[in-house]
């Protein structure tokens, strides 16, 4: 029996009797496993507690004596919780987190004495993992192969509780011996500080009591869930996280009957379990629903301060994989696991907030009369316009290439959706200035839905096709891929925004020094920005072919693949931006691009290997077996002197044989293209050849395989069909 049929047999009865804890009130479990501020207060002397608060609020460095005290308290808390081990938890350039556990236990020097459990300041602050096998983009040559992880006191430590034991996790950055960033977290923290430096003075123009400004993030994680046995019977999913073959079932997503439909029981049990773990870890996951494609779902938390939100997203992705196992399910976080149906993104809802509790993108009742809101809105539009190429590059990956520009998810053209009311307000501001008496009436009144804020309702006419829509009181960066560490997209956005706000502050100061009043200086600066950046605003259908033409006329880039998108990071403009705001120096930036390109090439190389293996060992053998059956049937008919009735069989055999031929020739072409691309020594050129010459060869292979899937005896076919993967409950 083929692995597919075995897998299908195992699916029956799956999901029954799985591990599900009894339902608890969220308020009882939330944050239970986190070393929260209130637990710190309990376990730390007040001086240490206050030092942590200062680190959190002003970035003040924690000295070694304080770290010693914190380490003691943290260890005590973790051990009270039952933890035996601890680990630095960090974010190498791989999209997943890394950890290396050490026991608290330190043996005694003499054999008869008992050791002790301890955590020293050094243990807490700095670890030295074996760094040599993480991608560094060339920052670590063999002579300086060391890397350090260093405690990030601004993201809380937590205890992960598995059936196999409890471990204290300490969020950390990852740097090289020479101090360069090797991870996603360090540049994110630097960009958060850049935002604070540049935006606070602007916020103070409106509210003098503001002391600091920080970014907020509420991500929405899309994912697919399929049966584990079926997953294992698909070597493509196991090797490259997406299906390389497969024909669409007759029942796809056309009827839109899955979206927001009732969640299948088995999946809901899984959600319940991973959400419970997430809530214990302080991740405020509150929303779950079916997504557009069959077997696709979404999970979203309440937004948080950006650094914590990113940590929480990574932790959740990890939890999803672990907990799915308990339910014999598999969570797929790839951007496009199934061609032809919706892919998965990670929408990043992003805003700016002050320490005094103001959401700087909150429009209030009358956005047209709210100069603070308009200032923040216009500057962000301007930032996106100035740095749209970097934003595009920040979400580039081989997986996301399948989403962007594929008439689904946002297009590869970066633009801002403002909603029609905001567009009117902005254009009026540009042409006529601020607050001269004109009233803007939102469509709310006509709809007669009381209590719903005007701009919000206007924007519920959501534009699903925009990569960067304004959604009422925040922007939603929709282009980020489901599998990404969204840290990088956020780092780039923050840096662009920081740069824009520092420019704005200077521009306003210059006008004021020339004798203009503050309000006038602000308004005329915003008017200039709107004139310069109007082109980035687009409220139409981002999937329409006309938009591609229109965008080209406006001079907006439309770069559909990773190696070309990444070029933007190597421009002088980009190097200047990241070094000016102390986020990434030139060497770090170049190294990062190298790491991304290398990752891209490896993805495509892995796909080559998978195409070869699956076609040669699964698809062709099935086709040949079937061909044999047809041949012997035709022969049999001939023996019975019924040749004239064998024409259908002959035709089938011909089609199968032709597809076999096509697949074989396709493999040959693919290998040839790969060999040529690999001869390219320059990494950028190599990646581009993989894009231009290797990737296109996959099309023929897929066509040949899909033809065979449609022709061959179902009992012979070895890979679970899409309909089995997507509709098995
Ligand atoms: P959608 O309609 O786009 O699916 P959801 O309700 O699923 O919207 O998600 C909206 C997300 O935006 C939530 O995570 C929410 O917490 C987040 N959000 C709301 N306000 C802000 C804000 N000021 N900053 C960042 N994120 C926010
Ligand atoms: Mg959503």
Helices and strands in order, then pairings?
Blueprint: H1 3-11, H2 26-29, H3 37-43, H4 46-58, H5 64-80, E1 85-90, E2 98-103, E3 105-106, E4 116-117, H6 121-125, E5 126-127, E6 147-151, E7 158-162, E8 165-176, H7 185-206, E9 213-227, H8 228-232, H9 235-240, H10 265-280, E10 285-290, E11 296-301, E12 304-305, H11 306-326, E13 329-332, E14 346-354, H12 371-394, H13 398-401, E15 416-417, H14 420-432, H15 444-447, H16 454-460, E16 468-469, E17 475-477, H17 487-513, H18 518-533, H19 545-554, H20 562-566, H21 572-580, H22 586-639, H23 647-679, H24 683-694, H25 697-711, H26 722-727
Helix pairs in contact: 4-5, 7-17, 10-11, 12-17, 12-18, 14-18, 17-18, 22-23, 22-24, 22-25, 23-24, 23-25
The structure holds adenosine-5'-diphosphate and magnesium ion.
Structure description:
This protein has 729 residues and is an alpha+beta fold. The chain has 3 domains: 153 residues, Glutamine synthetase, N-terminal domain (Ubiquitin-like (UB roll)); 386 residues, Glutamine synthetase/guanido kinase, catalytic domain (Creatine Kinase, Chain A, domain 2, 2-Layer Sandwich); 128 residues, Four Helix Bundle (Hemerythrin (Met), subunit A). Helices cover 50% and strands 12% of the residues. The strands form 4 sheets. Strands 9, 10, 11, 12, 13, 14 and 17 form a 7-stranded antiparallel sheet that branches. Strands 1, 2, 5, 6, 7 and 8 form a 6-stranded mixed sheet that branches. Strand 10 and strand 11 form a beta hairpin. Helix 4 crosses helix 5, helix 7 packs parallel to helix 17 and helix 23 packs antiparallel against helix 25. The two termini are 22 Å apart. About 2% of the residues have low confidence. Bound molecules: adenosine-5'-diphosphate (ADP) and magnesium ion.
